[in-house]
Design a protein that fits this description.
Layout lengths: L22 E3 L5 E3 H12 L5 E12 L2 E13 L9 E6 L4 E4 L3 E6 L4 E6 L5 H6 L5 H4 E6 L5 E8 L6 E9 L5 E8 L3 E12 L17 E3 L2
């Protein structure tokens, strides 16, 4: 679920003093719950962003048992005139890559010499929030964890059972409203935790970064 963002998106209300557990008002006197204030600030933070690059560390656990840890780099680009969805590239330290040009997604697994090709863009709640996302409350029931003082913590419960996602937790910086961490839990109890660092906004994106050609001899799977 990648949000299609528009440069014409309405500016978010000025909610400079919103804090968890409090009410926050915009300039026209409308009272907004704190969770809505955080979402509005997040969307406003990315309203002028066209691209994003970040380093990440990903850990996967089954309950409390670690299953693997990888590092890598992610680049996201807001849709242009010919794309309905964002383009993205995830490069992992084990050689795996996920590439999407907004029309097609390729998951390359060099250890299996395999490419999984599918239409559309991959579902990624983290990517949605990294790019400011659309109407999150349309797909999720959202709450704000008021116990955390070092970050805004949003807890999202899907309103439908799609994508096998049970729960999503997002940690957002209180100072710059950048996403620091995402935790996705599926219905089997598997947790995928991604921590972001070194986030850069509006850097030039290399031409052809989101193009992909299967390596010679690789098996291409089209589900």
């Amino acid at each position: 679920m990648l949000a299609s963002l528009s440069h014409a998106e309405a500016p978010a209300p000025r909610l400079e003093h919103a804090t968890p557990g409090e009410k926050s008002s915009s300039e026209d006197g409308i009272t907004i719950p704190a969770v809505d204030a955080v979402i509005a600030k997040l969307k406003g933070r990315f309203s002028g962003v066209t691209s994003l690059t970040a380093d990440f560390t990903q850990e996967v656990k089954s309950g409390s048992t670690p299953m693997g840890r990888l590092t890598g780099k992610v680049t996201l680009k807001r849709p242009g005139a010919r794309e309905l969805l964002s383009s993205m590239k995830w490069v992992y330290s084990n050689g795996d890559t996920i590439t999407s040009d907004g029309h097609t997604t390729w998951v390359y697994q060099p250890d299996l010499n395999q490419v999984i090709e599918s239409k559309g863009a991959p579902g990624s709640v983290a990517a949605d929030f990294l790019t400011g996302m659309g109407d999150v409350k349309k797909s999720f029931t959202v709450s704000l964890d008021e116990k955390r003082k070092d970050a805004f913590v949003l807890r999202l419960a899907p309103k439908t059972g799609e994508n096998n996602v049970k729960r999503v937790t997002l940690e957002i910086s209180r100072t710059d409203y950048l996403v620091k961490k995402s935790i996705v839990e599926d219905w089997f109890g598997t947790l995928t935790e991604i921590e972001f660092s070194g986030m850069r906004l509006n850097e030039p994106v290399a031409a052809g970064l989101f193009d992909f050609k299967p390596p010679k001899g690789a098996r291409v799977v089209r589900p």
